[in-house]
Amino acid sequence: HTHTHTRPPLLPAPPPTACLSRVLKLLPVTMCLCGDDPDPSDPYGQTGRQWETSMLRSCCNNPCGCLLAIPFAPCCACYLRYQAINKDWSKYICCQGLYCRQCTECTDGCAHTCPCPCLCLEVVFCECLAISATRSYVQRERNIQTDPCDNRIIQFNNFCQCLSCICSLLAICINDLADLASFLRLIADIVYCLTQACLQGQTHLELKRHPTAADYGNVISHQPK
Q: How many whole angstroms separate alpha carbon 211 and alpha carbon 141?
């Protein structure tokens, strides 16, 4: 008489949502870790006038600017840079010389001879840098104070991009992370899209109310509540 031994049923594999839920629980923590204290190296950390609107409120104070920046981010970036340099192409250089200067200085010759095509190439191939450069250029030219909440939003976006990149690299070696990597990539893209829209909406409202730095006079602006 032979006895047949039956194997106990295997435990089902944990669903991808299990790992996903753990990642989502970390999001509020990351917001706390992104400090809003002024950067000691930031010359506009505690001095200067305030933005006409913060990035957090730009969707309410400038809804058209934010909405247009979602599907037409490169076009809006071109327009805002053109307005930021007061429609004077002689002031244009790649990223306004604020980022990766050692890499962009080789484009100075083209920027002076054909600035418009160079700007189009900049916003297509370096969209995030182009958008940030315009905002930083406006802030420096007009002596605008850095908003702590803006720093948190930008840092959270950077965290999402880094997390997505790390998970995508791990998914190359660990197949079980493929679904999670795809989800995080989607979340990171959405966060970036909304962040750049709020950033461009903020810059647009500033340029709309004060086309040039001389339009402020001696009045220190305050953000609407």
A: 12
DSSP-assigned beta bridge partners for residue 144: 49
Beta bridge partners of 49: 144
- What tokens appear for 115 in the block? 């600035």
Find the length of the chain. Answer: 225
Tell me which amino acid residue 31 is.
Answer: M
Contact 219, 50 (CB under 8 A): no
User: What global pTM score does this model have?
Assistant: 0.78
Tell me the β-bridge partners of 137. none
Q: Are 78 and 123 in contact (CB under 8 A)?
A: yes
Q: Which two tokens stand for residue 144?
A: 């605008």
Cα–Cα distance between 94 and 123 in angstroms, integer?
10
Instruction: Round to whole Å and give the CA distance between 201 and 150.
Output: 13
CA–CA distance, 187 with 30 (Å, rounded to integer) = 15
Q: 98 to each of 44, 92, 183, how far by Cα in Å?
A: 15, 12, 33
CA 99 – CA 105 distance, rounded (Å): 10
| pLDDT 10s digits, 90-120 | 999 999 999 888 888 888 888 999 999 999 9
**Residues 184-203: tens digit of each pLDDT:** 999 999 999 999 999 999 99
64 DSSP β-pair partners: none
Q: Is the dihedral of CA 125, 127, 132, 134 positive or negative?
A: positive
Task: Say which amino acid occupies 80.
Answer: L
Q: Which of 183, 199, 158 is nearest to 51 (CA)?
A: 199
